[in-house]
Amino acid sequence: MMPQQILKPELAWQGMVPLLMLAGLFVFHFLIEILRAPKSRTTGGFWTLLVSLLGVVYLTACPDQPVGAVVHKMWIYDGVTRLGSLLVFLSLAAVTLIIPKSVEESGHLGEYYALLSGAALGMVMLMGSNNLLVTFLALELFSLALYLLCIFLPDRSTSQESGLKYFILSSLASAVILYGMALIYGATGSTWLHEIGARASQGGLLMIVGSTLLAAGLAFKVSAVPFHVWTPDVYQGAPTPVTAFMSVATKTAALVALLRFFPMTLGMAGDTHDGVRTMWAIIIWSLAMLSMLFGNLMALSQTNLKRLLAYSGIAQAGYLLGAIFMGTPIAKVSLFYYLLVYLCMNVGAFVVVAALEEVDESLDVHALAGLSMRQPYLAAALAVFLFSLTGLPPTAGFVAKYQLFSALMASGPNPLPKYLVAAALVGSLMSAGYYLRFVVQAYGLGPAPEPHKQIPPTYLAVIATAVVAVFALSFWAGPVLEWMQRLLGT
Amino acid sequence: MIFAAKCVMALLAVVSAFGVALSRQAVHSALFLTCNLLCVAVLYLLMSLHFLGAAQLLVYAGAIMVVFLFAVTVLAPEDELLGKWNDPQRLAGVAVGAVLGAFLLLANSTAPLLDLSSPDFGSLKQFASELFGKYVFPFEGTAFVLLVALVGVVLLGHRRLRDLDRGGPSRD
Amino acid sequence: MTEGMITLGLSAVLFAIGSVGVAIRRNPLIMFMCIELMLNSANLALATFSRYYSRVPETLPDSIELASSTDLGSATDGAVFVFLVMTIAAAEAVVGLAIIIAIFRTHKQVDADELAELKG
Amino acid sequence: MDTIWLVLALPLLGSLLCATHYRTLGKAATGMVASLAILGAFVASVQTAYQVQLRHEFTAHLSSWLHIPGISGLDFAALADPLSATMLCTVTGVAFLIHCFSMGYMADEEDYGRFFASLNLFVATMVLLVMANNLALMLVGWGGVGYASYSLIGFYRQKPSAVSAARKAFLINVVGDVALMFAIFIIATHCSTLEFKAFLQPDKLDLLGGDLILAGLCLMVGAYAKSAQLPLHTWLPDAMEGPTPVSALIHAATMVTAGVYLMVRCAPLFRFVHGQELLPMADDLNVIMMRFGAATALLAALCAIAQNDLKRILAYSTMSQLGYMFMAAGAGAYGAAIFHLVTHAFFKALLFLTAGVVIHALHGEQDIRKMGGLGKKMVGVQLAFLIGSLALAGIPPLAGFFSKESILLGVFGDGKSVEHELLWAVGILTALLTSYYTGRAYVLTFWAPAQHEGKLHYPSSSMTWPLAVLALATVAAGFGGHDLIQSIQGQAPPEESFGGLQLTALAVGVVGLGVAYSTHRSGRQRLVPEGADPYLRGCEAIDGLTKSLAASFRGFADKVAIKLDPVVSQVCPDLVRRSMLSTSTLLCQLQSGSLRLYSFTVLTSSTLLVLVVYFLSRFISGGGGQ
Known about the structure:
The complex is a heterotetramer of chains A (490), B (172), C (120) and D (626). Chain A has 490 residues and is mainly alpha-helical. In chain A, 75% of the residues lie in helices and 1% in strands. Chain A has one domain. Chain A has helices at 13-36, 42-61, 79-97, 101-105, 109-128, 132-150, 157-188, 193-199, 204-222, 230-237, 240-266, 275-299, 305-326, 329-358, 371-374, 376-390, 396-409, 416-442, 457-475, 477-488, and strands spanning 68-70, 75-77. Chain A has a two-stranded antiparallel sheet with strand order 1-2. Chain B has two domains: 1-79, Four Helix Bundle (Hemerythrin (Met), subunit A); 120-172. Chain B has six helices and no strands. In chain B, helix 1 runs antiparallel to helix 2 (26-46) and helix 2 packs antiparallel against helix 3. The radius of gyration of chain B is 21 Å and the shape is globular. Chain D has 626 residues and is mostly helical. Chain D has helices spanning 4-55, 82-105, 112-131, 135-153, 160-191, 196-199, 202-208, 212-226, 235-238, 244-253, 258-265, 267-270, 280-305, 310-331, 334-361, 379-393, 399-412, 418-446, 461-476, 481-489, 500-520, 533-536, 538-590, 595-625, and strands at 58-64, 75-80, 273-274, 277-278. In chain D, strand 3 and strand 4 form a beta hairpin. In chain D, helix 5 packs antiparallel against helix 8, helix 8 (212-226) packs parallel to helix 13 (280-305) and helix 13 (280-305) packs antiparallel against helix 14 (310-331). Chains in contact: A-B, A-C, A-D, B-C, B-D, C-D. At the B-C interface, helix 1, helix 2, helix 3, helix 4 and helix 5 of B face helix 1, helix 2 and helix 3 of C.
């Protein structure tokens, strides 16, 4: 065998721009904010916001066609990566604007921004990854950053507990994923997804077990039932902006990773009755089913708003897994549209939670009574977000659910997706119960208005943007869907 | 000869792994882990993966274990009461582990393994040309993982000094 | 039994022992050690596959076009994978121990069963 | 964006302003805002009509609306063609005059803001209904009109009769909405488009096959509910509980014509020509439409004779005239139907507004037997009512004559079929009755000896000038008929010389008026004996029938409900709720917070997944191998 030459990487900078932006931001924070520790604490936030908005602009407005594979096909920049990165940048921008007092007083704002941008870097890297090694690396990169963000508040024992639980369980999932990857490498002899996809059907039992372990690990990151156990505790204990970021960006990244594995690695064997592919589909289907039913069921008895949102996130993950299961072009479009809408409503809801914490409101359902009199704007925004999460008509949540369900219904004779729709409808019915309970409480009678406590203006800005987006995405659903369709090249 | 050595090392590795999982004292676990990692390093060397063996010795058995032992000595955790052997949760855990292991063994036994490697397999030269050629992207990415770890240590370590000034953090 | 099967079988056994440890221990520090054991066992499997590299015979249906004409997968993949995973595991160990130390400092003694302020 | 969207946007904006800023604006400004919004809409409509003249028809596309896989044409798009332009101009024009009238009429009301907000909202929804370029968007307007009329009929919230009338109108409208929705489902599933221009093509209609008749019937039921045709007419007379301008706007000029508009819009579906000849089933639909139209026209006219309430007389006459329009639509004389729709909008609005002035003057008295002697005291009003009455009775040269004449000619057709001749005869009979009851109302109100005392409440100028404009329009509108029919129908109406048919109609009108004058001049209150009343009130009998049907159904439902309801509505949901909640609590108790349990769960789940997949793969490969 000839000794191999050192290959020069064929770099396509255009596709790397989102990665480079975040990497630059991370290094900037590391060098300037942490090592130099300047007096002014606002510059870090400013630069993070600027870069994330620039990224949003680049990803939406950049007219170029998808660039394709980068650096020995390690990383792929296509419509999927682009839309996923857009969602991560958007949530990064939103989270940058909401800095709770407790984080600000910790005196580690530089680290906070650095870890946020590091996590975003990992997520973007994961979504474009075309190699098992890069996938693992990216998973670890954002997981490490998120452990540290969860444990960020030193004075709150809940924050510490949240960080420890996330760390132990997520490392466990990483180990499971790594073993799955090892088996897949052993079965196919390659770590590149497209090569694995081409050889998957010859992989035999090794490939089946390996991909199952991989699916289990990714299901953990998506927080699908029964790998959801960490979600409520970690979400509740972590600082609220971090929870918002995790609930949307992590889910997006892990779902996109699943999307890449699903058709590329394991679905390329054509329409032959291929064992691996069927297995994978059955796994995703059952995860989706369980998440929809159990997520909604467990949310029913929740009394804490933040915890409720965690459980409802599990149920929403179920709906999204349904789209992954379908894997048709329409389903992909509806997946990304749902994710975009989910970003608006879920981040919105969590910002409302953060704002409630800032004005020392309790998050308990009974203590929410009369919120509409104490904080009329927050109550109204909360109502809008919860309505949208329920999927009630004038909001984008309805359109998103409608798109998703119609994509699932367009499955021809296959009955499996239709069971998913039935479960999702039952789940939505249940979800109406627990979401509306909070709205009704907020608009019910309660303690007389106390003197107004000021909500930071950035919070209000994020909430207002999210409310507008929830309605705008419903009224202009058509153009947005068309745009996504064009990007995904379907 | 190599076969026999591998068998011995594997046996040693299994024993030390049980030691990690079942020792009452954390420090014993840490020492067993070191032993296990050393066994694995030797196995790498026996498989003529010389560089990996060296890296395992340096990175794992060397650096990481020092950190573990340091943590154990600093924290000095009390001995864990392992409880009775028929604690249901413990039995369930062992059962699940056994089933998982059995299935992994079953899957692994179907693996196609061929000893076709070239004479220079595992050489540093080939390894390096791959690492800095094809794998330059994840190689750079690893740098960011390390940076994040660094930030984390700065965050948690820096806080400790501040906390000591304030007389320790409150519980809530 | 080929020589490779020894290490491959060992990696499965080590993974199982590690998972048993995670499932039954209550000290987070030891839980984490068991997770390191699992990562190490995965590394061992990767190294074995790399050493006893075998390419799946390429009997592809005609309908499938490979995305690239040049093959990317090779025996060295596994070795590089192992090396980078070691590095990542080191980073994870550092962060994990920092987290565990931070918690031990406030709680003095940490029991995975009793650290349950968040539940329900 | 085309100006046509202004026709929709301005009333919507006006409605929002009136609803939210009534307190800051004050009464006068609120009325002005509302009227100006409609005036703007009218100007935009005229502009649109002009554009249609220039560019022929066009579609103004705003944005896409719903994405339903496999069904196209669900957009926010407006269709501008002669039909919709005519409708828009009529609706907004009449609505503007009525808004101005209302400013005077409603001046004493408390809820001025709510009134104008609802009125503007009504115009907006009606405009949406007219300009929609697909059935789905039309349904939005269709339902919106129903809601707006509900809020306007029930405007006097404190009056129980008004509330129940509003509820009745709403219910019957909902029947129509549901029917229209069914029609939409049928058409969407077969033709996979809802755009008028697309699904009304012969090749698309071919796809409907046997369901054509079903779709047509559903459309007709929808139209009948909205246009108060037999047997869904019962809400219209009751709707007179609303304020008089509302009656003028909704129940004369605009909303009730929506059904006619729908029929004309979907004309190809009823005229469905396959090859060259009319399909038998499309023909069936047309026959049904003509017969029901004739029956409605005749029965409503009979009923009007027996009425004493001025507004109810007008309401029944509206029903009767709508019957004419449906007759015309059934006979294929769409141009005539729309022509009569326009002229009827003018003269019926005129009549209603004049009636409103009279009622206003007499402090709310609506019974014509207690009126009389107003002719000398209110000369202008009397003149306006006279013009309206003559138009309704079909006396040339007023607009009503021409439009009614074109309908009768259209129904008579070539006069070769007995059916058509019979229907024509019914039309003539109805015309006779019409001129009689119109004359009766006019004579009893203005020329019979006065039956009331006290001071009259004279109208303000803002109430009188709209009357003048409408009277002028009534006089003039008849002369545009030829062009209108041509642009709607796409071909010139058949040239008819002034012959026997026209003479008969004219004679009938004069005779009816003459009889009315000679009988009621002296103050005699009735011509027909009271014993005949039950027979004349056949229309109202249907109301009674539906009421008793509803009552018996309710009785049955009550009985069932007493037994079943506690089970269905309390025990079962409670059981479900409780079991779900307890399951939920149980599941959440598993979430015990113990890290060890969590890691155990994750591992167990992974193992289970591996197990399941292993056995399934054995199963599948075993099954696949055989």
